[in-house]
Structures are given as C-alpha cells and as structure tokens.
Amino acid sequence: MRVPIGCARYSVSLRKPLGIVLEQDNKSGNIFVAEVKPDGSAARDGKISVGDQLIATSGVIYTTESDYGGATVKGGQQVVRLRVQGETFKTVSAAIGSHPGHMPVQLEFQRCDPAALAAEGGTTGK
After folding, report:
1. Residue 105 needs a FRET pair 20 to 30 A away by CA distance; which of 4, 33, 37, 53 works?
2. What is the C-alpha to C-alpha distance for residues 113 and 33, in angstroms, rounded to an integer?
C-alpha cells in the first residue's frame, strides 16, 4: 500500500489495555484514533496522536484445540498481520482483542499533514 504524500507511517507494540479509543469514519470506513488515555500504554509510548489512522494490527490465531474433560484448551498460537482497510470495525476489534494479556499488540498507524493532503487533493477521511 502506497503512503500518500504528506503522510508518514509508524509502528508501535503495546500491551493491553492499549489506552486508546478507536472510531470508524462512516464515509471512508477508515479507523482513526479518537482518544489517547492519559495513563495508558499508548500515552506512555508517546507516538500515537488523536487523528492517526490505523493501517494494520496483529491478531492471534490458535491452530490447535484439545478437549480435556469438557474444558477446551486452545494452543499453537500464530500471530498474523491484518490490514484494516475494508475490514469491519468488529473484525479489527476482534483481532486486537485476540491477544492474551502477556502478548503485545502490534499496531501500524499513518499520520498525515492536512495541508499537504489538501494540496494534493487527498483526504484522510475524517
């Protein structure tokens, strides 16, 4: 995926709770940071800002499932990268939520300069 002129991409690795509120723009379908919680993981990291667009997230897939006396145990964790463009907010939330507490979530964001985008005729979707 091409990075638009006036935009920069960056990645962060955060433990849950992430300390951010994400919202999906109804018109574009893009997912943006609506809030960074002051004492959360994202604020401590310092890179994420309100208005940044989520490009991708990691998700955990369990490749095995065993039944032990009525208790189902999942194993064989595989971390995958999910590009969020075209995905529902529910799917993106599920991917983020699939991480066990000890495993950090990998998030990729895009931050754009509105003036540069306007000059190029582009939009962030907000």
Report:
1. 4
2. 15
Mean predicted lDDT score pLDDT of the chain: 89
**pLDDT tens-digit map of 25-37:** 999 999 999 999 9
Amino acid (one-letter) located at 29: G
Q: Is the preceding peptide bond at 4 cis, omega within 30 degrees of 0?
A: no
Q: Which amino acid is at 1?
A: M
Does the model's pTM come out above 0.85?
Answer: no
Nearest alpha carbon to residue 126 among 7, 20, 3, 25:
25
Q: What is the CATH number of domain 7-118?
A: 2.30.42.10
CA-angle at 30, arms to 3 and 13, nearest 5°: 70
Here the tokens at position 73 are 């145990």
Q: Helix, strand or coil for residue 78?
A: strand
